[in-house]
Design a protein that fits this description.
Chain lengths: 325, 371
């Protein structure tokens, strides 16, 4: 990761500075916590941090796309839950094979994202409001479909191994972590190497200019929200797999952690700037901080205060950077 | 054109809502004539007049163009007017525990011929939402109310209102610091958590390190279970040290991660107590992910499928269960008794029980557990 950060610094991009800062902050955090407690820098704990990042990291990757377009998606957390419930219903009630359930979960997330896209692009509802509506719709539907009951995957032990198994038996890193990195690489490629990625930035930099130059703005916007929904669906599979159950009441509040991760990583809430690498670093900062403060047995009230302060600091850096330009 | 269609739709909806609410008001004891007229572009006109007397023999007249289903609903609601209406305001509805309370209340409603509604805020910190629900319930002029107050002081003014309107209030789940509730149907959480502490101490041979994963530090149940456990350890088991108390909001995933952090920072921890269902599921997950099953004693609260399975498998030593179905049932029973003018004891303890591998299937325990 250090090598990647150095390379990025050479490429002069507007948000690179914040990414370097964020990465530096992560290193400093790890350094401080390692000094403060001998229990911090241990293999088990590092795996714990990686695993704790998985769900929020995948959600944050998804939300990074819409934030770069200058939009927002508040529904990622509950769409995640909705997807988990759909996967659970298909596998346990529908008695379908696990891969079909996974597919159904992903599609459910993608569909919710698609609806968000339609609401925003076609019906011109502001993203904040449209996705706030979706937040509640998805949350309610998750409860309705599940009958306000958790769905357990006890009859399909392979479902649990999606997140908790070890594809590479030699190193004991759970699959969820590998899935997070795979998702990050794919998202990075989509963002930097495809037309979808290019238009994601174009929409955020100057939507009107994109429209005038003949870009079908509505269509690409719908595509971006659908992509975000797909990542929420993936997060849904991960959380259900890790908990070995689809918990219908979960999810609210997860969107804020995801947005915080993207912002800490240098994605600008004004749109047009951001990177997947930055978001992943941001997600790691949040989980490292939470884990480290817990290891040090800092009272929980203060853990919340510190996390909030870090987000404010990150946004402030963003503002300072902007003013300089 | 589009605007016109939309406004027609909105007005149609409004009429339906008005009719439905008139239907509800026929259950009230106070005579309350309602007349509403709505018209749009001269196309749709609806006028509703609902008048009820103290005997609840309501007379409802409704005429609405294109809103016959709503009128039907109003009629149906009037027909059930003879049953007392008892809204139940709980602390939540999403957790299995509250679903079990609800099931008990529904059974009580059936046995004692009452009509109930069951609602509660999403989390146990939403005191404001609960107050709104209580206010709305009072506005429906019910015969009695069952309330599990999140914050007993915050609801005090509304309880005064209920008293002024002669609506008996039945408290449940945790006490209300007020003499207005005619009775309180609840579990003694302090004593229940103390029992969990005794069991934990016995498992650990009365010495070693213990940690707690609690749902939150502000709700009554969170505070009582934490303090019940801590105080019992301090006074009765001085050789046991409490190394950490963390709060996971009852969120299974967060509780998992924080359990792992606890074990990481206190490698010698020998026992962990999870203070509600979400917390204990997190504890079980965390212990499992670190492959510490069998090395750390785990004690939980309430039930739920995952916890019952863990107890049967031996990864969880046991748990304290309340009687959620009994709480719901007794609540409705007490409300009906209060309406009949019967005197009730100031508090009704529905009890708590320890269960583990040996008695999880026993006849006196099994009915208390929900899956």
């Amino acid at each position: 990761m250090a090598v990647a950060a150095v390379q990025r610094r050479l490429v002069i991009r507007a948000d690179a500075l914040q990414r370097v800062l964020a990465f530096g902050a992560l290193i400093v955090l790890i350094f401080i916590f390692s000094l403060a407690s001998p229990n911090f820098l241990q293999f088990n704990n590092i795996v714990g941090i990686l695993l704790a990042t998985a769900v929020n990291g995948v959600l944050a990757i998804g939300v990074t796309f819409v934030i770069i377009t200058g939009g927002i998606d508040l529904s990622v957390g509950t769409v995640m839950t909705f997807s988990a419930v759909i996967a659970g219903e298909v596998i346990t009630v529908g008695q379908m094979p696990v891969p079909l359930g996974i597919l159904a979960g992903l599609l459910a997330g993608g569909f919710a994202g698609f609806v968000n896209g339609i609401l925003i692009a076609k019906l011109k509802i502001p993203p904040f409001i449209a996705t706030l509506g979706m937040l509640n719709v998805a949350r309610g539907l998750a409860l309705v479909i599940s009958g306000v009951k958790p769905i357990y995957f006890n009859d399909t032990p392979e479902f649990n191994s999606i997140a908790m198994g070890n594809v590479i038996p030699a190193i004991e890193i759970p699959n969820a972590v590998l899935i997070l990195f795979a998702a990050a690489i794919i998202a990075s490629l989509v963002l930097n190497r495809t037309i979808l990625g290019r238009y994601t930035f174009a929409l955020g930099s100057n939507e009107e200019a994109a429209r005038l130059s003949g870009v079908n703005v509505d269509r690409w916007k719908i595509a971006v929200y659908t992509l975000t929904g797909l990542f929420s669906g993936l997060a849904g599979i991960l959380i259900a797999s890790r908990l070995n159950s689809a918990q219908p009441a979960l999810g609210q509040g997860y969107e804020l952690d995801a947005i915080a991760a993207a912002v800490i990583g240098g994605t600008s809430l004004n749109g047009g700037e951001g990177s997947i690498l930055g978001t992943i670093i941001g997600a790691f900062i949040i989980s490292t901080l939470t884990n480290g403060l817990r290891i040090l047995s800092v009272p929980q009230e203060w853990q919340i205060v510190v996390t909030g302060a870090i987000v404010i600091l990150a946004v402030y850096l963003d503002v300072v950077r902007r003013r300089k330009k | 054109m589009r605007f016109k269609q939309l406004s027609l739709l909105v007005v149609g909806l409004l009429i339906a809502v008005l009719l439905a609410s008139c239907g509800n008001s026929t259950n009230t004891t106070a005579a309350q004539p309602v007349a509403t007229t709505a018209s749009v572009a001269g196309a749709t006109t609806a006028s509703v007049a609902g008048a009820t007397t103290a005997s609840a023999a309501g007379a409802t007249t409704a005429s609405a163009a294109g809103a016959t289903t709503a009128a039907g609903q109003a009629g149906a609601a009037a027909a059930t007017g003879s049953q007392p209406y008892i809204p139940i305001i709980s602390k939540g509805f999403q957790h299995q525990f509250w679903q079990a309370v609800k099931a008990g209340a529904e059974k009580g409603a059936k046995d004692f011929n009452a009509r109930i509604t069951f609602e509660g805020p999403e989390t146990e910190t939403q005191v404001d939402k609960q107050i709104e629900m209580l206010q709305a319930a009072l506005d429906k002029k019910p015969q009695a109310i069952c309330l599990a107050a999140l914050d007993s002081k915050a609801v005090a003014p509304l309880l005064q209102k209920a008293k002024a309107a002669n609506i008996p209030v039945i408290g449940f789940d945790s006490g209300v610091d007020s003499d207005i509730p005619v009775t309180t149907v609840a579990t003694d959480n302090l004593a229940a958590a103390a029992l969990a502490a005794d069991k934990m101490a016995a498992l650990m041979g009365d010495k070693g390190e213990v940690a707690l994963v609690v749902h939150d530090q502000t709700s009554r149940t969170g505070i009582d279970r934490r303090d019940g456990f801590l105080n019992q350890m301090k006074s009765k088991h001085p050789n046991i040290t409490i190394v950490d108390t963390q709060y996971g909001g009852g969120d299974q995933l967060k509780s998992t991660d924080l359990t792992k952090a606890i074990i990481q920072s206190h490698p010698n921890v020998k026992g962990i107590f999870g203070a509600n269902e979400g917390s204990i599921i997190g504890v079980l997950n965390g212990v499992k992910e670190l492959k510490k099953e069998g090395q750390i004693f785990v004690i939980g609260y309430d039930s739920g499928k995952q916890q019952i399975d863990a107890i049967k498998a031996g990864t969880e030593s046991g748990a304290v269960t309340q009687d959620p179905i009994g709480i719901g049932y007794k609540c409705v029973e007490s409300a009906v008794k209060a309406l009949k003018g019967e005197t009730l004891p100031k508090s009704i303890d529905t009890g708590f029980h320890w269960y583990d591998k040996t008695n999880v299937e026993a006849a006196d325990i099994k009915p208390l557990l929900y899956q």
